[in-house]
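Quick one: co-fold with fe (iii) ion.
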Amino acid sequence: MLLRNARIATLGGSDELIDRGAVAIRGAVIEWVGAEHDLPTDQFNGLAERDLQGKLITPGLVDCHTHIIHAGNRAREFEMRLNGASYEDIARAGGGILSTVAATRAADVDALVQAALPRIDALLSEGVTTLEIKSGYGLDRDTELNMLRAARLIGERRHVQIRTSFLGAHAIPPDYRHNADAYIDDVCIPTLKEAHAEKLVDAVDGFCEGIAFNAEQIRRVFETAASLNLPVKLHAEQLTHQGGTQLASEFAALSVDHLEYCRDDDVTAMRNAGSAAVLLPGAFYTLQEKQVPPIDCFREHGVPMAVATDCNPGSSPLTSILLCMNFACILFQLTPQEVLAGVTRNATKALGLHDIGQIQTGMRADLAVWDVEHPAELVYRIGFNPLSERIFAGESSAL
Ligand code: NIG
Ligand code: FE
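Sure, here it is.
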């Protein structure tokens, strides 16, 4: 198809919009993008033309950090936090992630898919075309594998690209309560190897935190990832500074995520490693965190900033990428342009992908068409969805 008379945010490097622009798509691929007056019309005679009447086209949005597959909910803990309990108090008392682990272990693959689909659909309805999904609510062999299988199934049931991350090192399961090292060696690492053999793993993640694993335990998981040629990413410096960022940088992590308590030397390590910073304002908001990640330092060192929902039942029960973008501006003082790059070009970097995230010749035609004039309009409204069309791999899905 040939989309004409559109405003286009290509995310190709500059923030400039193409006014009266066109995008030519053949099959799943972008064949041409530019200003209409430069369009080599005879080259695209066969394509179905569409007049977009000045609507804005952006790359399809990429939610690069989610725990969207899980069973149950944690509304009760939400109430406990409103009454003064902290996220860490609840985790130490056996709630938190472990409460979702109990619910998730009790669900089969089909139940996990069914539970996740309404949340997935909420994101797709806001223009998401690629979504990362983590395991990490199984913490045993069978359930970790089932979560990843459910993630792959979602990619078959919906027009969306799914990227999986193995997060076996997410919390210490009750059966290993006083033996985190044994959990890493006897469960986490063997399950990672099995999941990889079943082609279920695109990247390996961990939670480096006082209430989870220390850097030396995560190191063993990352060494296994490296031996399997899998890229790594890490939840680091979310609640306290634990040194996870330095470790992740040693392994040239695709991304380091959360980062509220990260320091200047962590930022330089990330820059040297080429890692993206994944900012998760939904967790910051939900936990009423006060410490903002060092945004100016990321800017100064040119560390690409991605923004994601962190959709999970505890710290970020958020299924709106548009609201997440608004949070990133209001809570972290990102500009609307930075936020748009954060859910497109930079989110793509955080997943190690190269064929999406921008509107460029040769890239896959994953696009979002919005009934707005300018990207800032996408970000500033609260709770309004101006998506007019979503195009995944060249195919338009009516809304
Ligand atoms: O990204 N930080 C660790 N993991 C999730 C929270 C998961 C949960 O609370 O269920 C996060 O915030
Ligand atoms: Fe997370």
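If it helps, Residues 166 and 204 are 5 Å apart (CA to CA).
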